[in-house]
Amino acid sequence: MTIAYIGLGSNLSEPAKQVQQAVAAISNIANSQIQSVSSVYLSKPMGPQDQDDYINAVLALETKLSAIELLDTLQSIENSAGRVRKENRWGARILDLDIILYGNEVIENERLTVPHYGMKEREFVLLPLAEITEDLYLPSGESVNSLAQGIATNGMIKQGKLSY
């Protein structure tokens, strides 16, 4: 079993509901079990600011799935929620599910980069991740808690807890 950390985000079509439904769908992934879920955070969009704020969270999933099998499953959940993939990297999304970490593995291929390429610059990833982990270190040896303590919050607001 491997612990994978999944980032969840939405800013369209009742975002809090989208994230809660994604947690429910993830809880039903075969050969996997949610270990913990962070609080929900309201954050500013990374890209164009002419879109609604995001609801974000991070969860820890213990899984027997390979990283690619997990990616396929998460993309299926996104598609079921109505996600439309566009060229715009930072556009509005019904649902965005990202594998932030997959055990202590470093993965780089055409479909998946783990650790997630932007995690160290994203408060909406680091702060929820630090909330649910104790003494977690990236494959590079960097402490998630230290990275989280050093990042600007950019006005991010903790909203409450998700159920799972």
Automatic annotation (TrEMBL):
Annotated TM spans: none
Domain of life: Bacteria
Pathway assigned to this chain's UniProt record: Cofactor biosynthesis; tetrahydrofolate biosynthesis; 2-amino-4-hydroxy-6-hydroxymethyl-7,8-dihydropteridine diphosphate from 7,8-dihydroneopterin triphosphate: step 4/4
CDD domains tied to this protein: HPPK (cd00483)
GO BP annotation list: folic acid biosynthetic process; tetrahydrofolate biosynthetic process
Keyword ATP-binding recorded: yes
Keywords carried by this UniProt record: ATP-binding, Folate biosynthesis, Kinase, Nucleotide-binding, Transferase
Domain 7,8-dihydro-6-hydroxymethylpterin-pyrophosphokinase: start-end pairs: 89-100
Family annotation (InterPro entries): Hppk, Hppk_sf
GO molecular function, one term: ATP binding
Coiled coil residues, start to end: none
EC number: 2.7.6.3
Family to which this protein belongs: Belongs to the HPPK family.
PANTHER family, per database record: 2-AMINO-4-HYDROXY-6-HYDROXYMETHYLDIHYDROPTERIDINE PYROPHOSPHOKINASE
Function: Catalyzes the transfer of pyrophosphate from adenosine triphosphate (ATP) to 6-hydroxymethyl-7,8-dihydropterin, an enzymatic step in folate biosynthesis pathway.
Name assigned to this protein: 2-amino-4-hydroxy-6-hydroxymethyldihydropteridine pyrophosphokinase
Gene: folK
